[in-house]
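Subject: Sanity check before I submit

Could someone independently write out the structure tokens for this chain? I want to compare against mine line by line before I put it in a report. The sequence has 496 residues.
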Amino acid sequence: MAPAKIYSNFINGEWLSSASGRTFENVNPANRNELIGLFQKSDAQDVENAVAAAKQAYKSWKNTPPPKRGEILYRTALLLQENKEEFAEAMTREMGKVLEETRGDVQEAIDMTFYMAGEGRRQFGQTTTSELPNKFCMTVRSPIGLCGLITPWNFPIAIPSWKIMPALICGNTVVLKPATDTPLSSYNLVKVLEEAGLPRGVVNMVTGTGGDVGTPLILHNDVRAVSFTGSSEIGRKVSQACAASFKHCCLEMGGKNVIMVLEDANLDLAVEGALWGGFGTTGQRCTATSRVVVHKSVYKDFMDRFVARTRALKVGDGLDAAVQVGPLINEAQRQTVETYVEVGKNEGAKLLCGGERLTGKEYDNGWFYAPTIFGDCDPNMRIAQEEIFGPVVSVIPCDSLGQAMEIGNGVVYGLSSSIYTRNVNNAFTAMREMETGLFYVNAPTIGAETHLPFGGTKQTGNGHREASVAALDFYSEWKSIYVDYSDKLQRAQIDT
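---
Independent answer below. Compare away.
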């Protein structure tokens, strides 16, 4: 057997070993006997080196004309297109989701990179009149400085692209800490940025754990902005750490998303949406449909179809074209799912399918779990309130649109919600009343597009948005400029 490939950190344009020389293993969650590679187990010294490189590079990168920055991103997008299939297959091997989904993950990075490349020629501000004569006013975007980016394992190329590309087009430099479960995908993304001609030090990548790499990155005095995607528990700690030095902080955290199925819904379409929303990416999405609220008049019909379709889902290795649901990311996540399934049983919810590890030759070397549905759930049950991040859907009956919306809003999160109805009045009422950053009509709670803002309310985030032009507002600061050509002192409100 050939020795495992060793992957390096990327600091100041060079691929380097960690300061300690230590590494960690990256394994295939569908077959933990397959070693994807060895990655650097970095520490605070590696962070220090990466930050120093990014700080030095910022001096010239911030003054590089935005259209020139955009040209580099455009070349990056073309390289991502060329390598799409290779990167998708590598992602399935290290993360587990099916190949069709990993292709979509890479495509999202392609879309985001093309979009932000175009923003290089759209760094628009405003010009406006002054309240005083012979005076000119305008606003311009200015970069923030050095950005620390901490990304999760479920979208290991897409989400890094959401953060890196707007940061770069605004003139910032970056230190990326990818998730320890999926560093290969971030390696592939950084590799194409290097190949596209990004100057040394503008993007740096340091692999390792949250404690060894993430914490010193967040706390470093030279890091002026932190963007974090992960759990609300960790996000709260990130926010508190950033507050001490007034760092910019963008948090994208948990969700407990809902599909509301009304009595006039197209049930076949609603079932398709619940299947894709609940079990796509094995339920490991912040936007996953973990709750379905169904009107009592169609509850039995919906449930019969939903349970039958769920039982028929093929679970297995995501490289198999026939597989629809891959493994969980690791054993700890599978144990979390098992714990919540026991909680659901003890709370009195009806386990209608799944609820167990999958065993047998096809499954024994991976972290597989059967797609699971609980029926007749009370909206206050823990399985209907807390984020599970696995293939578990809680179905709750309701009497009306009003009750469905009350249930939908009755959680601490506010990321994504959906309604299935043929009644335009109901659709627009829910559109207005649902307290979520994303809302869908006759579509599931997953499926964001890169040219629209992405993010949520309440404990899902802290008000910032990723993707689209909205991302530029996090990675830049507005500067108001006043040019007085009157050749005399004018004192704004005093002289008006």
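---
OP: Matches mine. For the report I'm noting this point. The two ends are 81 Å apart (CA to CA).
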